[in-house]
Amino acid sequence: MSILRLCAWLESTQVAAAIRESTWLFPTIETIHVLSIVLVVGSIAMFDLRLLDLASRDRSVTEVYDDVMPWTRASFVCAVIAGGLLFTSSATKYYNNVPFRLKMTALLLAGINTAYFEFWTRRGIAAWNRAASTPRAAKLAGGISLVLWIVVVACGRWIGFTK
Amino acid sequence: MLWIIPAVQTVHILSVSIVMASMAMLDLRLMGLVGKRQPVSRMVDRFVPWVWRVLLILVATGAILVIGEPERELLNWAFRTKMAMVATVSLITLLVQNRNQRDAAFWENHRIAAATVGAVSLLLWVAIVTAGRWIAYV
Predict the structure, then answer these.
(1) Which of A31, A71, A153 sits opposite B14 (nearest CB)?
(2) CB–CB contact B136 A34 (8 Å)
(3) pLDDT-derived band at A163, boundaries 50, 70, 90
(4) Considering the entire predicted model, what is its pTM?
(5) Which residues in chain B are contacts of A39 at CB distance < 8 A?
(6) What end-to-end distance do the CA atoms of chain B give, in Å?
(7) What pLDDT is recorded for position B37?
(8) Distance CA A43, CA A38 (A)
(9) What is the pLDDT of residues A116-151, one digit of tens each?
């Protein structure tokens, strides 16, 4: 089954129709999506700024990670569920939407950046957890993450201004 | 220029992210739910200065959006409610900061007051974001 046909099927489900036809369902789910995203972006920015040595320098990297990441993960799950429901309501339209595709690409890249950090960079964390300066790989991970999340928010807002 | 409003809105939302995440951490700490490794006074000193600085960006970008589409905002009850809530939560945050400056142990020693202030502030911030999104729909 092609992706477009999958989108057409999603759009034909009762859930999609309910979101499309209701006056309050779409804005309500969208509000949950926005609340989740601001928490994802705000919390991940705290950790990214720590990786870049720009904030919380008096705290170890793992301390900031442990404080922040559970919130980032939980908010991200909420954002994906709410976003998925919004997508379903007009799946074929979003599938063909340029800012939507850019947003998904940025999300994918953010995922790859996170995976690389988790599986490679973070392995040696004991050596620089409390060091005066984080290594270049950590700074790079933080910087890339910040930029990609800004792109995600910008594209998300842009979707609302396209047909 | 078609791109100005979405661009300014993007900066506005990114700024909301910083304020919302900072205030959520502080409010949950005041409620005694997270981050007990750090004293409340430390978290007030860490987060509140960011909130004030970013609030300036929020006011500036918000003002541009109001000037761009005055009828959409000023005649809108969601917008008016949002502004009233922003004023209220700013006063609450000032109070939190003020008590903390006078006595660093104040909020640790007044647990119930701290929990109440934290809960009210958190609810207000959630309501502010909600009202902000609903400006487009009411």
Answers:
(1) A153
(2) no
(3) confident
(4) 0.95
(5) 17, 20-21, 24
(6) 25
(7) 84
(8) 8
(9) 999 999 999 999 999 999 999 999 999 999 999 999
